[in-house]
Structure formats: C-alpha cells, structure tokens
Amino acid sequence: MKKNHQLTSLLVAFFLSTGFSFSAHAADNNSEDTTNVLEEINPFDPNIEQTLEQIDAIYERETGKSAHLPEEFIDSIVGVYGGCSRETCAVWAQVVKSTQTMYLYVNGSLRGSWAVSTGMSGYGTPNFDRHPDGRIYDRYSSAKYPGGDWNGLGNMPYAVFITGGFALHGTPKGNWPKLGTRASHGCIRMHPDNAYMFNRLVRANGKSNVWITVQ
Fold first, then answer.
1. pTM of the full predicted structure?
2. Domains in the chain, ordered, with CATH?
C-alpha cells in the first residue's frame, strides 16, 4: 500500500509540474460543432457484455494492449476480505449527478473537480459505489459515429469502466459545451485531459486501490 501511495503522489506531482490544471473544463463556447455525439456503446443494451467482448478483441488487436488491468494478488484479497472504499482508497472518483460534477480525491485529499455529463433523459446513469471492474481503454474508434473522433482516439478516449458498459471517459470537442448537463448515453463524460489523468491514476494503482461513487 505504501508503494501505491508514493506512486500516486508522484503521478499527481508530475501532472502539476507539467502544467496540468485539474481544471473544471466546463463549456467551450467557441466550439463550432456542438452536436451531441452519442457513444456507440449503449450500457443499457441487454447484450452489452457480448458487445464489449467484441470491442475488447478489436482494441487488443489494434493496440497490442490488454483491454483489462492485470489481476494482482491484492484483488483476490479484496475479493475475500474487503479492502479500501471511498476516501480510504488511493484514488476516489465521486460523481454528483445533481450538480454534474466529479470530485477527485487522491490519498484522501481533494485534488480537483470538474464538470461531467451523465445520462440524458431515458438513459439515466445509475448510482454506483464500488471498485472499477478492470476494463480500461485508451481509445475507442466508433464506426457508427466517426465524426465524433478526438485526436485519433475515438469518441470515448481514456475509458475506465465501472461495470458492464458504464464507464467514465473523455468526450470529443463537440460535446464540451454540454459538460455540466445530462447528455450521455448513460456513461460519465468528461474533458479528455481529465479523463487521461484519471485513466493513468487507475492504471498506476490497480482496480482494488480505486473507488468510484456515482450518486
């Protein structure tokens, strides 16, 4: 645990030293295209797990990387005896739907907050209070919405999955003005810079040292 604590602190220090602002990244009102580009993945699809397995295979073939975090010894221990939760974890993402805001806690301290978009009407994001399930992508190139690509990483860059098809991920520029409002297909959107930082913290700490609350 001490090693993960030190690594997380180093990562945060790195983001700060390189000018990463942990900023809100709310609306970019200068964006010319504000079309709401929906994610191709619909987490409410009853066949979502089969769809995700197909996407996993494509992702691994195209990137040469695993679509899942490696299983670690601590994951088995946590599964049997329990482990950290919320602020006792190295990384805690708290998403408050009433304000469409995500708060990021690192080693128990609030390190940033920013606007997000949870599910729009008919696709309301459920509440969660758990570790992520270990599925994690750096990019996902949507065949259905190619216009929603962001820097070659698709319209769901830096996705961290909670369970099933529900994930926290970045979103392309056309969706930035909608951050702070309910606009997604059920996932939790954020600015890609914030998604990248969260994704890297999850990769560094492993699923058993990360907690996600959606309330």
1. 0.85
2. 2-214 (2.40.440.10)
